[in-house]
Amino acid sequence: MITIGGVPVVPESFPDGTQKIGLPLGAMRSRIAVNKFVSIEWLYESDKELFSLYCISKSIREYFPHLSQCLVMPYIPNARFDRVKDHNECFTLKYFAEIINELNFRKVIVTDPHSDVSKALIDHLQYIPIKLYISKVCNKVLKAEPSRNLVIYFPDSGSLKRYSEFVSDDYPIVYGIKNRDWKTGKILGIEIHGDTDKLDENTAILMIDDICSKGGTFYYGSKELNKYGCKDMYLYVSHCENTILDGELLKEDSLFKKVYTTRSIFTKEHEKVEVLDL
Description:
This protein has helices spanning 25-35, 48-63, 92-102, 116-121, 130-144, 157-163, 216-226; strands at residues 2-4, 7-9, 12-13, 19-20, 37-42, 68-72, 107-110, 125-127, 149-154, 173-180, 187-194, 203-212, 232-240, 256-262, 273-276. The protein is α/β, with parallel strands linked by helices. The protein folds into two domains: 2-127, Rossmann fold (3-Layer(aba) Sandwich), CATH 3.40.50.2020; 130-276, 3-Layer(aba) Sandwich (Rossmann fold). Strands 11-10-9-12-13-14-15 form a seven-stranded mixed sheet, with helices on both faces. β12, α7 (216-226) and β13 form a beta-alpha-beta unit. It is elongated and about 65 Å long.
């Protein structure tokens, strides 16, 4: 969804599938009078919205040629495809970034980029501090589990390196090392390392990572942690895809009590998923 000044821009479709886009000019003028710039927020749902964004930004520049534009884009689409392995593959992140850069936003505000390559390719990036979310979620878990000790779990060395600096020294840290069949991609097992002596039946686990699809990595991690006696699992991911509803993470027999995420790409509802404000 794309909004301008808090007003959703919902394109209509002609019979051939092309878009008819109307701009909320009244809301824009009132904002412009105060801020001297316009903020466009894009909560990604599909690549189709990229063309909508392109047309919206270009139209605003025609209506208000001297007006600065800011893009709030919490989730960076195509960040997973940040390199090519075969000559016939398209470097989609590179071309996506070129489109965004062409629109010449004064700043592009994002949350927890999945790839460092996206940081290099997109101009004028600014970041919503991830530490604020992690601190908030730690407090929520401690409030929900006042009689248990909180241990932080990172599903791999990458998340350990990325997020450990944002975690209070008061919390022990453990992390997983995946044993994967690289031909099939299937996870064969997970080894737990770190402060494993802090794991027991009186431990609440908070897993932290940037993105979740169906949640297999977290699910198998919970199974391994359960061997130490841990039964209460929580998860924070900055970007939670709607496909989490198709995985094992949210089923009744899952060890997970709650999944916390931002509203960057999750658009569904589930009693175990709490969406945090940006």
